[in-house]
Amino acid sequence: MQTTTRRQFIRSAALTGTAASVFPTILTEANQSLAKSADPKVRLAFIGVGARGRSHVQQALYRDDVEITAICDPSAEAVSRTNTLIEKAGRKAPVSYGNGDEAFREMLKRDDIDGVVIATPWEWHVPMAVATMQAGKYAGVEVSATVTLKESWDLVDAFEKTGSPCMILENVCYRRDVLAVLNMIRKGMFGEMTYAHCGYQHDLRGIKFNDGKSIAGVGAEFGAKGYSEAHWRTQHSVDRNGDLYPTHGLGPVAHWFDINRGNRFTHLTSTATKSRGLHKYVVDKGGPNHPNAQVNFKLGDVVTTVIQCANGENIVIIHDTNSPRPYSLGFRAQGTNGIWMDDNDMIYLEGVSPSPHSWEPFAQYQERYDHPLWQRHAQTAENAGHGGIDFFVLRAFIESVKTKTPPPIDVYDAAVWSAISPLSEESIAKGSKPVEIPDFTRGKWKTNKPIFGLTDNF
Ligand SMILES: NC(=O)c1ccc[n+]([C@@H]2O[C@H](COP(=O)([O-])OP(=O)(O)OC[C@H]3O[C@@H](n4cnc5c(N)ncnc54)[C@H](O)[C@@H]3O)[C@@H](O)[C@H]2O)c1
């Protein structure tokens, strides 16, 4: 009886506070400098205007405060499709750069660019982000930001030398449910956090292979004969065995656990299954005599990584892109008081949920703890990709460029989240041995305070 009364009380308290009272409005440096900002227009350039780059361009075109001054891509088709978008929006044509892979360096000499959105193949991210920072401009770099450990250090060093910020454009950090969970974690509703599960569980076979003309799920080509990501991404599955795409899962979890801001990743272990899915797909699509049926794909079908954090939490990340399966990032947040799971969207909070040992739907918590960003901008975000999160991530980058303030997801996040890829490769190569995760903040994690999701703008 006593338990029931307590449960009812806590449940009613948990479900009656408004989200506005949950999130105090923190008057940020960003807000203050926005007030001072003389020129409200942000001048953006884009390096890489393939599938992802064009979706960022489209988002930018919805905003009156953005001018697209230059674009750079060696693909004439990509440039032409981007210019069509810009023309349709009634905007001035940007200057195009496309003369080879290094044309971005010429573009970066322009003095009418404040920020640069980089959406190129992974191996180009760091050279482009470093050159952008060296040119004194804000860099917004797609995921994953880096491929090697050295590249993660290069990114951090470039920022520390130039003072030009670099934001990893991790859109999943803005997913509505993971932001509501972040809100609940910060209110202590899960108790002390102990564990998270996440991953990139996405059947990419139809992206890794195509017929060289479109991403319509037809064909077994990749590399020189592949279109869009099949042109470059698939080669990583040939050459590497590790978690090749950790940041969609890890970004939100890093915010839940205050990584780089009071906590940090210390070490990891990784294990990979055998590699079967990509070979089978090539044979199914192209027959056993297709030349790609001879390719030896190094990437295991499912790669499992376990990260240990300084404050004692564990994070399991799954990379699962080679098998038939419905999409799921497989989030799970767990603490001493309860647990939320993305799959089936269920929650259980001890003393709050109506029945012990029983799940309840997350929907009413989602509504109650909806993040103020979503409350304010849900309608505007409606037309943006990936359920609206693409709107928020680009907005955060633009607001940070506009207000000349640090982005909410910074170069240290970019460095350590992305470094999980090479470190997982190292662990697998050593028979799943533990591998140290460097402290890219060089000790600043001990005093840095959380900023993500705590300001009006970001
Ligand atoms: N956050 C997300 O949800 C999300 C979704 C899709 C892709 N991405 C990321 O976006 C990036 C791009 O992916 P995509 O799907 O657009 O691939 P894509 O192959 O469709 O486009 C890449 C573009 O980069 C161009 N490019 C290649 N080398 C270049 C160079 N040296 N200079 C300028 N341009 C160059 C290519 O010509 C192409 O147009 C990748 O990092 C990918 O992981 C993120």
TrEMBL record:
Entry superkingdom: Bacteria
Required co-factors: NAD(+)
Domain Gfo/Idh/MocA-like oxidoreductase N-terminal intervals: 43-167
Segments forming domain Glycosyl hydrolase 109 C-terminal: 179-361
Gene3D superfamilies the UniProt entry points to: Dihydrodipicolinate Reductase, domain 2, NAD(P)-binding Rossmann-like Domain
Pfam family, one: GFO_IDH_MocA
InterPro entries in the cross-refs: Gfo/Idh/MocA-like_OxRdtase_N, Gfo/Idh/MocA_oxidrdct_glycsds, Glyco_hydro_109_C, NAD(P)-bd_dom_sf, TAT_signal
This protein's UniProt keywords: Glycosidase, Hydrolase, NAD
Family affiliation: Belongs to the Gfo/Idh/MocA family. Glycosyl hydrolase 109 subfamily.
This protein's name: Gfo/Idh/MocA family protein
Species name: Spirosoma soli
